[in-house]
Each structure stands twice: as structure tokens, then as C-alpha cells.
Amino acid sequence: xxxxxxxxxxxxxxxxxxxxxxxxxxxxxxxxxxxxxxxxxxxxxxxxxxxxxxxxxxxxxxxxxxxxxxxxxxxxxxxxxxxxxxxxxxxxxxxxxxxxxxxxxxxxxxxxxxxxxxxxxxxxxxxxxxxxxxxx
Length: 136
Prior knowledge:
With 136 residues, the protein is of the alpha/beta class. The protein has a single domain (7-135), classed as Rossmann fold, CATH 3.40.50.620. Helices cover 50% and strands 18% of the residues. It contains 4 helices and 4 strands; from the N terminus they run αβαβαβαβ. Strand 3, helix 4 and strand 4 form a beta-alpha-beta unit.
């Protein structure tokens, strides 16, 4: 399940946890840190200054989810990935790791209110090889 710390992804984690309890399965949580395109040297140098802090913050958040799941005896594998396309990295991960179900929020931190679904949730649901459950 993709996780960005938004209320939508927190709700999706709760649903994923319920499903994992019911089916005695594990949860894989993936956080994607944006990596600027290589042809943008200014952004790369600026991004490099904060990438370690972003990664550490993501790890702390994912460890909180692992503790919540551990109380229910559900294993959680947590991954922090660097990417320039969240949809591409998520669908590649899902398709190569034989994921059975994606549980994700309908929108993330960058969601615009006029949109019914976020661009990441639309992209993942269209290109992933498994079912996608979108959670508000």
C-alpha cells in the first residue's frame, strides 16, 4: 500500500490492516520520495540537501505503522523508494512482487479538492496487474 502520511493514506492503512487480520496476510507499505529529473541540476542539488531528512521522517512514520500492526500480530514490510514518477515506481513494484491487492487513498498530500481522484490513484489503478481498493 502506498503511504504518504495524508489522512487518506492513514484511512487506507486502517482498511489494509482489517483485511490483513481477516485473511492472515502481511502488508507492504511503500513511501515514494520524489527525485527531480536528472536534466534539472539546480533541483537535484537543492533536493540533495533535504533528501536524508525526508527519508528519516518517512522511516519514522513507517515504523509507527509497523508498531500498530505488530499489536495485531500483522507483519509489515516498509520500504522508502526514490522516484521521479510515483505511478511508475508503484506499478513496477506491484507487478514484479506479485502483490495481491493494493489498498490506497483516493488522494494524497498533493490532492486538489476539485479532483474526485488523485492522479496517482488513477494511474496505479489503471496500470497495476492486481485489483486496487481506493479508500476515502
